[in-house]
Predict the structure.
Amino acid sequence: MTTEIERTGDPIADPGLAPHQYRPQDVDGNQERRTERQIAGMFGVATLLLIGFCVAYFTIDSDVRVFAFGDPNSGDAFGGWSAQNFTFGTTLGGALLLIGIGIIQWAKKLMGDHEMVEMRHPARSSDEDRSAVMADINAGVQESGIGRRPLIRNSLLGAVGAMGLPAIVMLRDLGPLPHSQDETVWKKGMRVVNDVSGAPIKPADLEVGQLVNAEPAIFFETDDEGHPVIHGHDLLAAKAKAAVIVVRMRPEDITPKKGRENWGVEGILCYSKICTHVGCPISLWEQQTHHLLCPCHQSTFDLADNGKVIFGPAYRPLPQLPLAVDGEGYLVAVSDFPEIVAPSYPELARDQEKLNEKFGGEA
Ligand code: FES
């Protein structure tokens, strides 16, 4: 008996192609135009969502939370999500989804719909095949209708172009602008408190050689309703500039420069905790030498000599906060820092000049 393979030479008979099914868009002009508008609509909504992303970046406070428990304005709220992140996710995710769906719909419903049979052949294509492929690609570009359908093409270009907007506005998050570093929350009469307990500090609380990490009292203050005066992002930003160290040395070891003779109390001096190199927090204290060492790149400051740099890449002294005691004998600031508390940056000299004007002379 003759088998199918012996008879035809093929293990399975070629079933051939089923009759071609035309899509509604191929045979109905109204349906084609409706589909075109739907796709353009998706790209249009994607563009609006990307613009919404940018608007949310500038209008939604980073502390606001959604689906959180407690009073969202008090700083005591917990759980939930950041409203800004929630909006970023929904707008950017929605835009990407709509652009993806629009492109798939365009390819499935409007681009050329020809069935093709491709026979197996040697791995390397012949020159003729290569030319044919290029011809096919060019034909595909023609059939995609990119030239004939300016509505879809332009709306897609608009949506893809708008994807660059979130990337541009988020450059702002690379760091605070340098001029925003000029001031801290310290001001005249504000108590210096322990950064963990919030307890105000009296000179008698410190022994000679001791270093205490401290903060301005406002970080621990609450309003009439018991809510923190500063909270959330504002608190973190303020802490990053206002953190200080308080050290006690023998008064005879200190050599204050001119104008700073009364910036300390009984040998107690207060310096910024922010390294002037690139801003690491510092508190590695060598009490015998009065040196403060930054753990990041080993800049070393002499606290008995006005925070002068004696080693390392920092080239500005550590800013010093003038101290006094209030009526109850607690340490308080005499003013804000007369120097800029920040890593060094190119416009610093200009900004320091402005600060000098405010404090009436060079600090
Ligand atoms: S940050 Fe302090 S030495 Fe570099």
In short: The chain has a mean pLDDT of 86. Residues 275, 277-278, 280, 294, 296-297, 299, 312-314 surround FE2/S2 (inorganic) cluster (CB under 6 Å). Residues 29-59 form the longest helix (31 residues). The radius of gyration is 35 Å.
